[in-house]
Structures are given as C-alpha cells and as structure tokens.
Amino acid sequence: MKHGKKYTDGAKLIDRSNLYDPAEALELSVKTATAKFDETIEAHIRLGVDSRHADQQVRGAVILPNGTGKDVRVAVFAKGDLAKAAEEAGADVVGEADLVQKIQGGWMDFDVAIASPDMMGFVGRLGKVLGPRGLMPSPKAGTVTMDVAKAVQEAKAGKIEYRLDKTNIIHCPIGKASFGKDKLMENFNALLDAVIKAKPASAKGQYLKSVAVASTMGPGVKINPNKIGNTAADAE
User: Fold this and answer.
1) What strand order describes the sheet that includes 93-95?
2) What is d(CA 32, CA 43) in angstroms, rounded to the nearest whole number?
3) Which of 78, 107, 172, 190 would bridge with 82, disulfide CB 3.0–4.6 Å?
4) Parallel/antiparallel/unpaired status of strands 93-95 and 74-77
5) How many C-beta atoms lie closer than 10 Å to residue 16's C-beta?
C-alpha cells in the first residue's frame, strides 16, 4: 500500500517495534497530524474477550472531560413535554413517527440519536439503518432515557459511546490534534478508565491486549498496556 509523503515522513518518527508510554504516544500522534484540517485523534483498544458471547460484551458511554472537538448533531425521538425539554436542551432535531419516516427516507444528518422509552416502538423500525452505524439508542449507553434533556446536554458536552466490534476492538475518538498532548491525555484516561471498569466478570487472562492511538491521516502509535496507570494494572 502506497502512502503520501506526509504519512511517510510521520512514520519515520515512530519506532513500530516499540511500545510507548501513553503521553509520548499521544505527543507523537499530534506531531504526525500534518493534514490541512484539524485531524481527529483516535484510540484503538483490543481486548482479551470474545464478543460472540453475550456475557463478554463491553459497551458503555463516557463523557470526555475536554469534549471531542466536534459540533455534535443530536436527534431526539420524543413527544409532548419531553420533546419540548429536548429542544430547550439544544437538540438539533426532535420528532416522533415523522422523524422515523424522515430517516427511512435517507436523512442521516446527525451524530447521536436519543429516545424516550415510549418511543422505542417507533425507533425499533430503524434497527437495520441505525444499528450498523452505531447510532441505535441504547439504555446501556444512556441514549434511551426519560431524562432526554440531560442526555442531549451530555452528548453536546462530549459524551461518546464505546463498544466492541466483531474483532474485539474498540475504536473511539478522543479529541482533535489541536487539543495538544495534555488535554488528549485527560480524554484518553477517561476512556480507558471506563473500558477497564466495564471488564466482564467472565473475562479471563490479559484484558488489555493492545492499545494504539492515531490521527485521521497519520500512522498508528502503539502503547504499552502495562503503563496505563494503576487502574489498568489492577484490571490485568
């Protein structure tokens, strides 16, 4: 696979055989984010679980202390007073069956979907549309709730959902390159703490198999899982 000059130059800064401390890895990911736009920094966490088993699923949500750096567009399925509360909290679009029909027609101009429990009968029709995109409201992620106003405020403040993919890896944005190392480190620690606390009781052996960070257009930087604070060590 051929890479551009900027990627190649960035890759020269990284020793692919080395496992870096988190702070150093994040600093390198910022240095290698040389695109003309403000690149997103992502964390990729491979866990020692088997997502095929229901009792080894790892999924949840966490509010990043410094946000994601992205203007989050929120769609809310609610009616009556809850719909009004969602609008007042800053939701970008609020609706009932009409919103379901709009999405079925191909409209997908939002990043987070929130629903009150009484609307899930309607929202369930969108499973094949929202599910593959990771947008289906879920009680576990706090996006199916009676307190839709709070959910909207948290989403706008930088709440992100983490979940395993089929290869037992979690992929999550932790901010923008412009945040700098320190703010990214705070967000990284918040995400890792949440993932570690979500360790299934049935998980055996090493929980954090591998961790890496990378900018949108840059090379991955591997992190030593054993140097992710005391919490990580306890989980192992």
Assistant:
1) 93-95, 74-77, 112-115
2) 15
3) 78
4) parallel
5) 9
Tokens 């999550």 correspond to 172
